[in-house]
Write a structure and sequence with these properties.
Mean pLDDT of chain A: 97
Helix content of chain A: 55-70%
Number of helices of chain A: 19
Largest sheet of chain A: 7 strands, mixed
Order of helices and strands of chain A: HHHHHEEHHHHEEEEEEEEEHHHHHHHHHH
Oligomer: homodimer
Shape of chain A: globular
Low-confidence stretches of chain A: none
Structural class of chain A: alpha+beta
Chain lengths: 589, 589
């Protein structure tokens, strides 16, 4: 019953009009040869087709059937194998991969738009691909030339897939205490032994090989996170010529039965002296893995936007058609038994909350993509450095705020359907279940918040935040919109509060943990206010009476009037400090 | 894996110490002969046993197995039949039923504590019983003596069960447009024809008969809600002597596949000229049904508290045992590989949010129960009238705020578990799925909010709210606590805002709908602030250094410092008014 079609109009608006990507690409020599406005539009259109026509129709059936574990093999739901083959053939796995090894080298600003469509259409399916793309990024950044030449091309082609093996039963957030061991062999390889849990796509029947990136410790490694190394462990051993050989000593012990993303296999992976190859330097595995983790964090953030968009489309369509009660101001469809529920204020409140959070998220994902592209392709080292600082600052915001607001949006989208929202066939409840994991995996949103406030704000004395705040002030000074004053107030509030927290953190070791989640939300609402001002500025620049631009201006007003006030409550909670969190003993809970 | 044990200490604290129920009961002649402190404690202990030992163990298996529809029959999951028989034998269905017909006549103040345990242990199971209790209430209040004599005793005994048949496929919130017809017969009965959906327990294999309360329209009835009548339609026809006769023309066409409460059957019920009996007056069926609906609304509100309590218990236990990372202030368990996560500020924030919302909800349920008891048993008509006004005002708050905060709590409880929270065997994700329906059924929380602001506040010019506000001021004047100033501020804010909305509503027909949900939340946080002041006052009265009382005081501080500030953001959104909700056409969404 549910259907999803990418909102190409908004994707183009954000890419071309808000962030003027083609002009940026033309200014960056590497990208200038690869992409222009027409190529980008053609890719977006193809992306809309593959996600809407090929993957969306498998979303409900995938949820009902689920991934199955049969004697160590994983069977994905009906249609997934064929769809993955078509998808891989289209080159989507390597969309922003390194062209030297077969990737398409497309900018992240474009890739984020595609990722949103992918998660919106079918989050379970999307994960198989997302893990491959992330693994490629880590291999490309840290592995030897030989490993790159051997592993990247089939990964970009989608013939092989990737996985990320961090978590162990006793070690999730706290990776310093992992027990998986790596023993050096005479030939320079390692024997990996240990058990990993929650491995997305650790086993599947979509690709002929799976390349696991595994965190493990050498026998003599230092204790804690500084003793962790990263290894590439293929499911099937690969010959010098790239041919597949014997099975490696890797097996899938079971898969989890989960709340959602049921078509994605979540595996217990056992490594029994499996052959592995070091990626990057010994004992610096965590840093190398962070290349993949930061990729996945933004990607999982985008899952939040994608699920919210899918839920919004369905809720909007339902609200236009479902007849129930009369508008408060009098019947708008007197010829029918009741009015469509989109006339009711509270239904509009829910839809506009979804719409304005999702569109701001879409813009912010493109903005972070722009910084990633600048960090990679800008010629000026100072520009690269600035972009890297922004990426570091904004990645935890993107991951956690996209998914927290994505979850809120999907819950609204379910609520718009009334009782039907709770029934499986309508699809809205699946989106709630599927998006829920995005607040948990790739580092819980609580961990993202600690990373933001502890490392990315307090850790550098607020320097990165100042970059962001100054950019916002500069933009506002150059672009008049009705919301500039509110935006500047919000930025001022964020900076004041950050300064206050910098002081608090000096005297109170619990200050950061006590404030972090509310702080991240306050940061997120401020960042979205910036996005809405940029969208209004772009809509004004269009000098058009197209209803699309009027809708953008009206949506911005809703965001500033109805959602941004949430920061007032958040500030109140933050300023209460940590004391009341620690006045109960563990036994008094 | 999950287990639930009722928190008897807190139940007794609220009943005896906060609301001093035994003294109240002693002052009300009808209740004085039925119950005293010892009886109440004995019932609570038995309730804890039946819910913890009998029903909680069937919760996970019930979710996995689900209710099944086989050729028109519903099969409840393994163990439900036997458990229901034991449960009914204990007299729990008729706990607060009319003693004249076999009920136990227990006060609502006590019954709400039991209902919480029931939903906490097994929400699906609870519903079969809750519908019976509600149906009894409507029959007792509105049916003829003959119907009461014939139907109430077996319902109270639990040999038969009840159902509430309102919704039709095209008519959920908007009951005025139902199509089910009732044709008068020569013998005074009616033939009921039509199809109802979303009927909880419409068919099941737990009881030998099911008594449906059905909304239908006579052929010549006025259009809209003023043409609706209420009928009692038994699944099996009942002879004059109470014996079971032929099957009535009622059948279950299918059951829904849902997000949660999977062991509860949600039925499509077809009435094909079924024999029915009028309950109450013709065309006044909606008012009669509201006796049942208001009962169910409070009951479903309590589902929110029950699920939150179950989630809290599991999250607290997990947080005490799960070892991960070190406390920010230095290791508290240096002999172990990491500290229990309850040392971390953000874990404490989640647990304390759950704890303080749940305990305030528990107190507020008891408070509403007290008003229901006063409305029923007080000898002074003025006291009854005042209590009725408070019940009318507070029922939508209880239904919606208990379940919105209950959902928030269950999401926190899942988050505390990290990745394990997403895995079915741990039980936390089931609670999220099960509690989610409580925000939707028995009138969505959006509808509750319209009822509160439109009918219960604006509708009487704020008179009912003044009663509540005056009571709070009187209490605060007589009981000094550290939070009185904050409570009085919150009440002042609520009253000011209500006055402002009364004015807005005169000029803007959309004003109520635009503000209603945020208004209900602001009301709820204010009511919970009152509950926390009452709990602190009771804890102070105890003059005890028992850690329990210290814990109450510390929890109150958390509530006032960290959660109550949310009203600031809510007020900001409310004062923005309705304009931004209506600046987009339906096509611009």
């Amino acid at each position: 019953m549910p259907s999803y079609k990418a909102d190409l109009r908004d994707a183009r608006f954000i890419l071309h009009e808000v962030f003027e990507a083609p002009a940026l690409w033309a200014s960056l020599p590497t990208l200038a040869e690869r992409i222009d406005a027409d190529t980008a539009n053609a890719i977006l259109e193809e992306a809309a087709k593959v996600t809407g026509d090929l993957l969306a129709p498998l979303n409900r059936s995938g949820d009902e059937e689920g991934a199955k574990w049969i004697d160590g093999q994983v069977q994905t739901p009906a249609g997934f194998r064929e769809a993955y083959a078509t998808y891989a053939e289209g080159g989507w796995v390597g969309l922003s991969g390194n062209p030297e090894f077969g990737g398409m080298g497309m900018p992240k600003m474009l890739a984020v738009a595609f990722e949103e469509m992918l998660y919106a259409a079918n989050s379970s399916f999307a994960l198989y691909s997302a893990l491959s793309s992330g693994a490629c990024l880590a291999i490309d950044a840290h592995a030897s030339e030989e490993l790159k030449r051997r592993y990247l091309p089939p990964l970009y082609e989608g013939r092989w897939a990737g996985s990320m093996c961090l978590t162990e039963a006793h070690a999730g957030t706290d990776l310093g205490i992992i027990r998986t061991r790596a023993e050096p062999q005479a030939d320079g390889s390692y024997r990996i032994t240990g058990s990993k849990i929650f491995i997305t796509g650790g086993e599947q029947d979509l690709t002929e090989n799976i390349i696991h990136l595994v965190l493990a410790k050498l026998p003599d490694a230092p204790a804690g996170p500084r003793g962790i190394s990263l290894f590439l462990v293929p499911k099937v051993l690969v010959g010098d010529d790239g041919s597949l050989g014997a099975a490696n000593a890797v097996s899938c012990g079971s898969i989890e039965h989960k709340m959602g993303i049921k078509a994605s296999s979540t595996c217990v992976m056992n490594f029994d002296g499996a052959r592995g190859y070091l990626v990057g330097e010994l004992n610096k595995g965590l840093a190398a893995m962070f290349t993949m983790m930061n990729y996945e964090r933004l990607s999982i953030g985008i899952q939040g936007i994608g699920c919210a968009e899918a839920s919004y489309q369905a809720a909007r369509d339902y609200a236009r058609e479902r007849l129930q009660s009369r508008a408060a101001t009098g019947a708008v469809a007197p010829e029918r038994v009741a009015d469509p529920i989109i006339v009711h204020a509270d239904v509009r409140r829910m839809l506009l909350t979804m719409k304005t959070l999702t569109e701001a998220g879409r813009a912010f994902a493109c903005y972070v993509g722009q910084q990633l592209d600048l960090a990679k392709y800008a010629e000026d080292p100072a520009q690269r450095e600035r972009a890297e600082a922004l990426v570091a600052l904004l990645t935890p915001v993107a991951k956690a705020f996209f998914t927290d607001t994505g979850f809120e949006s999907c819950v609204h989208g379910q609520q718009v359907f009334g009782g039907h929202g709770y029934i499986r066939e309508w699809g809205q409840e699946q989106l709630v279940r599927d998006v829920r994991i995005a607040q948990i995996y790739e580092g819980t949103n609580g961990i993202q918040a600690l990373d933001l406030l502890g490392r990315k704000v307090v850790g550098n004395g607020g320097a990165a935040l100042r970059l962001f705040a100054e950019e916002i002030r500069t933009f506002a000074a150059a672009h008049e919109t009705p919301h500039n004053a509110a935006l500047l107030d919000a930025v001022e509030r964020l900076e004041q509060l950050s300064g206050w927290l910098l002081e608090q953190a000096k005297g109170d070791l619990n200050a950061i943990g006590a404030a972090s989640v509310e702080y991240l939300h306050l940061f997120g609402y401020t960042a979205y206010a910036y996005m809405w001002v940029r969208m209004v500025a772009a809509a004004n620049r269009a000098y058009s009476d197209d209803a699309f631009y009027a809708g953008k201006r009206a949506s911005a007003a809703f965001y500033f009037e109805r959602l941004l006030p949430r920061v007032q409550g958040l500030e109140g909670s933050i300023r209460a400090g940590s004391a009341s969190l620690y006045s109960l003993d563990a036994e008094q809970f």
